[in-house]
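Human: Respectfully, please carefully check these C-alpha cells:
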Amino acid sequence: MSRKPAKDDEKILILKVTASDWEGRVRGMPYRVIAIPEKMSLYDLAEIIIESFGFDFDHAFGFYSNIKRWPRSDEGYELFTDIGEGEQFPGVKKVKVGKVFNQAKKKMLFLFDYGDEWHFITQLMRTEEPKENEKYPAVLESYGEIEQYGYYDEEYEGDDEECEDNDKVV
C-alpha cells in the first residue's frame, strides 16, 4: 500500500482495530492502532488493516454497524457493491473514512473473508492534526499476532483421499 503525507485541510483519524470472536469479545485479542486521513476510502482502511495483521488482501469484506449480528446491520459498506454483486449497502471504494467514523467512540465491525469470517472491531479513538513529514496510513501500535491460514500445512501433499489428521475428505 502506498503511503503519503496528509493534505493540509484534513484530520487524521486514530482507529483501534481489534480482532474479535463472533460474539464481539476482544479481551486479550490482538489489535492495531492505525492513523489514517479522513479523506481516504474505506477500501484503503481495509487494506491497511489487513496488511497490519499480515493477512493476504485476497477476499471480499465489509464494514457493519451490528457487531454481533452483521447481517442485521442498519449501516454497512461492502466491496460486493463495488464489484456489482451487492445492493443493500454502499460500496467501500468511494466512501471516505471520515464520513463513516464521524463521532468519538463509533464502532463498526470490519468483516474480512465471508467464508472464514474474520471479525475486527474498528473504533474511532480520536482525531488529530497531521504530523509533519508523517506518511499515512500508518500503524502506530501493534499487539499480538494471528495467522490467516494457520490451519493449512503447505508440506502436506496428499492425494485428497485423506487429510493430515486422517479424517476422510467428503
